[in-house]
Q: What sequence folds into this?
């Protein structure tokens, strides 16, 4: 009868040793998965930044064709605009919206820099620009910075800044 009691008690649950083994296996799996998840997120943010730069380049092209006397936009605010604020203008064209118009999207900070201006007939016309996307927190939100000039060549800075020297494939 004592033997039957032990069997019944044994089959009623897990031993402490079994639980410790299961917990240690789960911890090992988590230690392997967490760094991989961070890498995947950084890569996804980098791909999003590259696509967003291409979107901004298309918006610049639309802006230039809509406002040829102004040329290109030199601020994200000029490309953005509130549709409920009335008709679009050179100061608020409404060709981008959402997160991209704020300059921050998916862990990257976007800006338009190095605007080249030409003055003709007392009117300034922007003839060139450089689009940049840098990680908000290098190493966490992304590893590389990206640049796209008015010629359409996308380059990367492996250090996460705007010193873009490597071509992006």
A:
């Amino acid at each position: 009868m004592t033997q039957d009691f032990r069997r019944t008690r044994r089959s009623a649950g897990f031993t402490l040793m079994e639980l410790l083994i299961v917990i240690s296996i789960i911890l090992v799996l988590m230690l392997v998965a967490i760094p991989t998840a961070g890498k995947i997120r950084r890569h996804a943010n980098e791909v999003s930044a590259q696509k967003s730069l291409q979107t901004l380049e298309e918006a610049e092209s639309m802006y230039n064709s809509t406002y040829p006397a102004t040329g290109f936009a030199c601020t994200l605010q000029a490309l953005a605009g509130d549709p409920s604020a009335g008709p679009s203008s050179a100061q608020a064209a409404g060709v981008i919206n959402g997160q991209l118009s704020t300059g921050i999207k998916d862990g990257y900070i976007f800006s338009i820099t190095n605007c080249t201006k030409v003055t003709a007939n007392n009117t300034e016309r922007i003839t060139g620009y450089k689009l940049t996307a840098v990680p908000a927190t290098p190493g966490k939100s992304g590893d590389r910075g990206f640049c796209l000039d008015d010629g359409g060549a996308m380059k990367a800075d492996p250090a996460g800044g705007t010193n873009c020297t490597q071509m992006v494939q």
Q: What stands out?
A: The mean pLDDT is 88. Residues 16-66 form the longest helix (51 residues). The helical segments are 2-11, 16-66, 76-79, 99-102. Strands lie at 104-105, 108-120, 123-135, 145-149, 154-157, 166-167.
